[in-house]
Amino acid sequence: MKFWYIAIVILSIYFLLPLYILIMIAFSPAKYTIETIYPPLVFKAFTLNNLIYAFTQYDFVHPFFKSLSVATLVGILGILIGVPAGYGLSRLPGKIAYPVLILLLITNMVPGIVVAIPISAEFIKLHLFDTILGLALVQELITLPLATFIMQGTFSAVPREIEYQAKIDGASTFSYIKDILIPTALPGIAAAFLISWMFSWDEFTYAIILSPIHPTLPVEIYINITRGNELAAVAFSLVFTIPVIILTLFLQKYLKGEYLAGGVKA
Q1: Among 43-47, 232-236, 251-255, 260-264, which is the least confidently predicted range?
Q2: Is the pTM for the entire model greater than 0.85?
Q3: Whose CA is closest to 152, among 209, 112, 100?
Q4: Integer CA distances (angstroms), 239 to 26, 58, 66, 121, 180, in order
């Protein structure tokens, strides 16, 4: 039993140490962090000057709201398309549904940069280059197969007998979907939305190629790092994690194995 406690402590340190270092750099004077060769791992002093300087000297608002808009649109599109697609696949025989799912997931194996360059050429013609809608549509290439996979498993876990019984009782197809199917599948829908949103929130490859003029926040952080504005990048990165933490805490009850694997809790 002690072994598992030790393993949990080691894993916790492994995952939380980067966040701790990020917080320490953000709230410590630069002479104790980026301006020293061997920075300490404990706070030597506290300051808000790094954040004040970053948010007053560099553009944070526009990249932040662009990332927020793109991620929200990706999550909504993933649900609007993934729910009917997942339901349709769940009603197909397994020998047809699973090859289709595998084919959809294969698209995730293609390197993003290979896909982004030809798409950017087409998006320039369609006036979708450097737009929120264009970037969201491209990111759906990755998130939509995952959302469809989750929804297919979710709907497959709903017994067909419930649908038969509802129709025997006089329920129309629309009322069955609205009053029974969607509420039952709500945990899977929330999990699909969360996975889609979180992927889009920190996506970088498509964003830097398809939205270079008005960048998203990850691209803006990268630009500041390459220009030597490390403190601005650290401040932006710190704020960048806050929506993820809030959304994760808000939907944490859906972040369970049975939901992410596409099942519904009995």
Answers
A1: 260-264
A2: no
A3: 100
A4: 10, 14, 14, 33, 39
Long-range own/partner contacts, residues 134-138 (CB < 8 A, 24 or more apart): 134/210, 134/211, 135/70, 135/206, 135/207, 135/210, 135/211, 135/216, 136/70, 136/73, 136/74, 136/77, 136/200, 137/77, 138/206, 138/210
Instruction: Inform me whether the pLDDT recorded for 108 exceeds 80.
Output: no
Cα separation of 177 and 179, whole Å? Answer: 6
Torsions phi, psi for 59 (to 5 deg): -80, 115
The type of residue at 249 is L
DSSP letters spanning 100-158: HHHHHHHGGGS-HHHHHHHHHHHHHHHT-TTSHHHHHHHHHHHHHHHHHHHHHHHHHTS
Contact 216, 207 (CB under 8 A): yes
Say how far apart CA 145 and CA 74 lie, in whole Å: 12
More confident residue, 166 or 201: 201
CB 43 within 8 A of CB 34: no
Contact residues for 73 (Cβ-Cβ < 8 A; gap 6+): 132, 133, 136
> How far apart are the C-alpha atoms of 102 and 10, rounded to whole Å?
35
Give the Cα separation of 196 and 70 in Å (integer): 11
Which segments within the chain are labelled E, that is strand? none
Q: Would you state the pLDDT for residue 77?
A: 95
Q: How far is CA 35 from CA 44, 139, 156, 199, 223, in A?
A: 14, 38, 56, 33, 20
Q: Write the single-letter amino acid at 71.
A: A
CA dist 24 and 80 (Å) reads 41
